């Protein structure tokens, strides 16, 4: 059922997402009783209690092309034997429920440890070495595709919106001047270590394909590079493991500072969408917007 996209996006709260999840489960013949919200970000993720399934609810119908890419990429990677999260094959998906694309995924039973940065570097090295099949249509990386929607609909002070729109235009100008030296290939698009899971058999599995695309590998390397060099979220040893496993440190590339600006802007506007959810989220948004206003100040941002 299609609804007005702006109204859908503006009303995307955990409560609305839960109602959409329940309706999607009914349509798919699944029992939603006891379902648990495990994350609210670009999507809402629910773990079902009745079967080992994760339900992903997207923010609005404009996210439907991305949901279709997620499903297609999962199928391709599984066929390649690449360690990737798997959709529920027997269900028709994505579904669109009240204007929200919904997809269903096999639950990954986690083991007793988290993935390492060395493993992230290795997974990205292997991913970037794959050849995308001719029948899989992937978009280019679009660093600004969601920003206009986010800025239009965000419940933030007007002066923040003015500042962010000005920064957005500045970043677009710098992006237009970027010159990449690497060939294009498969790119995850949101390649942080939290998008790896280690299952109960010790397998390291790549998840979350909504930003998957065909573009330059620098877009994947920028995430951990910025988290380390700008935000200090990894130790020197952890980052060294990442670089050694992948074989490149993006910090040495002249385009790093532009990608740093794009990454930090995206991290701030991503969180900005949920400032009404609770005070903890609102406080972290205020911390991040303060950092953007002073490029030279140390970042005290917290992982989210």
Could you explain how this protein is built, in words?
The protein is α+β, with helices and mostly antiparallel strands. Helix content is 43%, strand content 12%. It contains 10 helices and 9 strands. The protein has helices at 5-10, 14-28, 64-80, 117-128, 147-153, 158-176, 218-229, 236-246, 256-272, 279-292; strands at 36-40, 43-47, 53-58, 95-97, 100-106, 185-187, 196-198, 204-206, 213-215. The longest helix has 19 residues, at 158-176. The two termini are 32 Å apart.
- Return residue spans where pLDDT drops below 50 for at least 5 consecutive residues: 1-10
What is the structural class?
alpha+beta
**Distance linking N and C termini:** 32 Å
Rounded Rg: 19 Å
Shape: globular
Order of helices and strands: HHEEEHEEHHHEEEEHHHH
Write down how many β-strands occur, each being a DSSP E stretch of 2 or more residues. 9
Mean pLDDT: 92
The number of helical elements comes to 10
User: How would a crystallographer describe the biggest sheet?
Assistant: 5 strands, antiparallel
- The neighbouring-strand order within the major sheet is 1-2-3-5-4
Strand content: 5-15%
Tell me roughly what share of residues is in helical segments: 40-55%
């Amino acid at each position: 059922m299609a609804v007005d996209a702006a109204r859908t996006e503006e009303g995307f709260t955990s409560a609305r997402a839960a109602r959409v999840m329940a309706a999607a489960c009914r349509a798919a013949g699944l029992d939603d009783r006891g379902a648990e919200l495990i994350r609210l970000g670009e999507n809402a993720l629910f773990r079902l209690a009745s079967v080992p399934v994760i339900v992903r609810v997207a923010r609005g119908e404009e996210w439907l092309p991305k949901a279709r890419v997620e499903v297609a990429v999962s199928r391709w990677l599984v066929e390649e034997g690449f360690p990737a999260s798997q959709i529920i094959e027997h269900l028709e998906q994505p579904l669109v429920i009240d204007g929200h694309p919904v997809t269903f995924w096999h639950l990954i039973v986690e083991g007793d440890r988290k993935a390492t940065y060395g493993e992230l570097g290795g997974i990205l090295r292997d991913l970037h070495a794959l050849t995308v099949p001719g029948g899989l249509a992937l978009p280019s990386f679009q660093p600004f595709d969601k920003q206009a929607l986010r800025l239009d609909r965000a419940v933030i002070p007007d002066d923040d919106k003015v500042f962010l729109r000005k920064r957005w235009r500045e970043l677009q100008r710098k992006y237009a001047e970027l010159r990449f030296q690497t060939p294009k290939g498969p790119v995850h698009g949101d390649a942080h270590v939290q998008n790896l899971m280690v299952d109960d058999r010790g397998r390291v599995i790549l998840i979350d394909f909504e930003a998957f695309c065909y573009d330059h590998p620098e877009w994947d390397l920028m995430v951990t590079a910025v988290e380390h060099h700008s935000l200090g979220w990894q130790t020197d040893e952890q980052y060294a493991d990442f670089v050694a496993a992948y074989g490149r440190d993006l910090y040495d590339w002249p385009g790093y500072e532009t990608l740093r600006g794009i990454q930090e802007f995206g991290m701030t506007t991503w969180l900005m969408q949920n400032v009404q959810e609770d005070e903890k989220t609102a406080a972290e948004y205020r911390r991040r917007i303060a950092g953007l206003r002073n490029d030279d100040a140390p970042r005290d941002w917290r992982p989210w």
